[in-house]
Specification:
ion channel; cell membrane; membrane; FluC; 5 helices; mainly alpha
Length: 126
């Protein structure tokens, strides 16, 4: 049953990513693909928060299943490393090496910082 819930949550995460990216793209006046950064940063924050919340729990099966459904399923479907990689290369080709590398570095640094913040907040709330 957990496998089915992970698959459904993954689909929900992918749909949420599609809708969120579209909404941001319609408002984005920059040449940078901001939607993917926002999605990866918020997904990293959510996964860090989830990990922080469950890190102090006793590891019961219901907690592990919930973490798998939200973490692996939803966050896995919501975030997208591959799109960020392709967008970095597109920026490199269209705007130059500095834009491509800057976008990749910003995505990485912001996502890791968001995951760390989520982990810290999760520990405080647990």
């Amino acid at each position: 049953m957990t496998t089915v819930l992970i698959a459904l949550a993954g689909g929900a995460g992918a749909l949420t990513r599609f809708v969120t990216d579209g909404a941001i793209a319609r408002r984005n006046r920059l040449r940078m693909p901001v939607g993917t950064v926002v999605i990866n940063v918020t997904g990293s924050l959510l996964l860090g928060l989830l990990t922080g919340l469950f890190a102090l729990s006793g590891g019961d099966s219901s907690g592990a299943a919930l973490k798998a459904v939200i973490g692996t399923g939803f966050c896995g479907g919501f975030t997208t490393f591959s799109t960020a990689s392709v967008e970095s290369m597109r920026l490199w080709a269209a705007e130059g090496r500095t834009a491509g590398i800057g976008y990749a570095a910003a995505t990485l640094v912001l996502s890791v910082a968001a995951a760390a913040a989520g982990l810290g907040i999760g520990h405080l709330l647990a």
